[in-house]
């Protein structure tokens, strides 16, 4: 075994817990003398292979960019509820095969360009494309068509009912829940 081998998940968790307990056991006298300008740098074992979440970038892309760079239509709260993020609301047709999502107005990309329904459509189609290696591709496989009747409305047609669509179009608002969700998919 190499001297500096990457720890497995269990070793990493045990080390992190040990360090946490050690930090909590520091006496108040030591804390009072601590350098308040000190900086703690925290790293991740996951490193994105590229910046394209549809090109098989691995777990690192989720760790580094979800919530920091990428935003979703919806977010998951700590209780697992779906909350609007880039969407303001959604409705479901009586047969459960059509979702109509209304986007927030005034949302812009870093370039200053406005977020439009066409951008949402392009993003979903990129994730569901045959060549996509996105971890979300399978969860969106019931989508058969996406229409954009105006700049703030996205209409998604499904091949079968899916009460999970808003959940599947979400990112976690709590990072631990994100990690647990990713490992279950």
Describe the secondary structure blueprint for this structure.
Blueprint: H1 9-24, H2 28-32, H3 59-65, E1 74-76, E2 82-84, E3 87-92, E4 98-103, H4 117-128, E5 143-150, E6 153-158, H5 165-168, E7 170-172, H6 175-184
Parallel strand pairs: 1-7
Antiparallel strand pairs: 1-2, 3-4, 4-6, 5-6
Walkthrough of the structure:
By secondary structure, the chain is an alpha+beta fold. The protein has a domain at 71-184: Dipeptide-binding Protein, domain 1. Helix content is 29%, strand content 19%. The protein is built from six helices and seven strands. The strands form two sheets. The chain has a four-stranded antiparallel sheet, covered by helices on one side. Strands 2-1-7 form a three-stranded mixed sheet. A hairpin with a 5-residue loop joins β1 and β2. The chain is elongated, with a radius of gyration of 21 Å. The two termini are 31 Å apart. The relative contact order is 0.14. The model is unreliable at 181-185 (pLDDT under 50).
């Amino acid at each position: 075994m190499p001297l500096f081998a990457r720890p497995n998940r269990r070793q990493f968790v045990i080390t992190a817990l040990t360090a946490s307990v050690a930090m909590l056991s520091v006496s108040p006298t030591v804390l009072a003398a601590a350098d308040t300008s000190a900086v703690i740098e925290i790293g991740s074992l996951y490193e994105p292979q590229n910046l394209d979440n549809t090109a098989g970038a691995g777990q690192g892309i989720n760790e580094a960019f979800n919530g920091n760079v990428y935003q979703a239509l919806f977010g998951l709260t700590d209780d697992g509820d779906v909350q609007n993020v880039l969407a303001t609301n959604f409705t479901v047709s009586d047969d459960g095969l059509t979702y109509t999502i209304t986007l927030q107005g005034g949302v812009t990309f870093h370039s200053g360009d406005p977020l439009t329904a066409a951008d949402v459509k392009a993003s979903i189609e990129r994730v569901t494309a045959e060549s996509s290696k996105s971890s979300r591709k399978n969860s969106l496989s019931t989508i058969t068509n996406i229409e954009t009747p105006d700049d703030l409305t996205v209409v998604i047609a499904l091949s079968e009912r899916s009460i999970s669509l808003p959940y599947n179009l979400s990112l976690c608002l709590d990072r631990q829940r994100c990690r647990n969700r990713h490992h279950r998919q």
